[in-house]
Write a structure and sequence with these properties.
With 195 residues, this protein is mainly alpha-helical. It has helices at residues 34-41, 53-58, 83-129, 137-152, 156-176, and strands spanning 4-5, 12-13, 19-22, 28-31.
């Protein structure tokens, strides 16, 4: 049973599945589904389409070079059937698969650690620049004034803080009250007959 690889996305094509496209120069392109075939016909580059294996390997999201991928390569050299050789080959394939999965998991964990550090840095930067999203501007102003008052240590500083509180309370009252807009009644039309 021969398992082909999709030309566009590099996924496995099982027997009886997929689409084959033969160009005029007799080159054969196998596609796993119509999505890949349509993208090929639109002349899209698989290295620039984000969901393909080629893009993921190029962008460093998947393990690109490893000795375990050697088992997947096609070999056209015919080998005489030997039961012992087949048995050893199957065992080796299983072992190589386990090693490959373990290496991919380690690679993914290392990549996620780097991504977490970058995300943490970006979050801290956003927090510094957009502190008003978390803390109300009035509260920050009040806190800054308190800090100034503590550094200056003047008796007038306490008196200055009280008007700020009054202003804040006045703003809160104004926001609670509903705005009432007077509605003017339409004027009656005076016709020529009435006058």
């Amino acid at each position: 049973m021969r398992l082909e690889k999709c030309w566009f996305c590099s996924s496995t094509i099982y027997p009886g599945h997929g689409i084959s496209f033969v160009r005029n120069d007799a080159s054969v392109f196998n596609f796993c589904r119509s999505k890949c075939h349509k993208n090929f016909k639109m002349k899209r580059n698989p290295r620039k389409v984000k969901w393909t294996k080629a893009y993921r390997k190029l962008a460093g999201k998947e393990l690109a070079e490893d000795t375990t991928f050697e088992m997947e390569r096609q070999r056209y050299k015919p080998v005489k059937y030997n039961r012992e050789l087949v048995h050893k080959s199957v065992k080796a394939m299983q072992k190589v698969e386990e090693v490959r999965v373990a290496r991919q998991d380690r690679f993914h964990e290392a990549r996620m650690k780097r991504a977490a550090k970058q995300q943490n840095r970006a979050d801290q930067k956003e927090l510094e620049t957009g502190i008003d999203l978390i803390e109300a501007p009035v509260a920050r102003l009040h806190r800054e004034q308190q800090a100034q008052a503590e550094t200056e240590v003047q008796p007038m500083a306490v008196e200055q803080a009280e008007p700020v509180k009054e202003k804040v309370q006045a703003k809160e009252k104004a926001s609670k009250q509903k705005l009432r807009i007077p509605v003017e009644k339409p004027k009656k039309r005076v016709t020529a007959m009435e006058s």
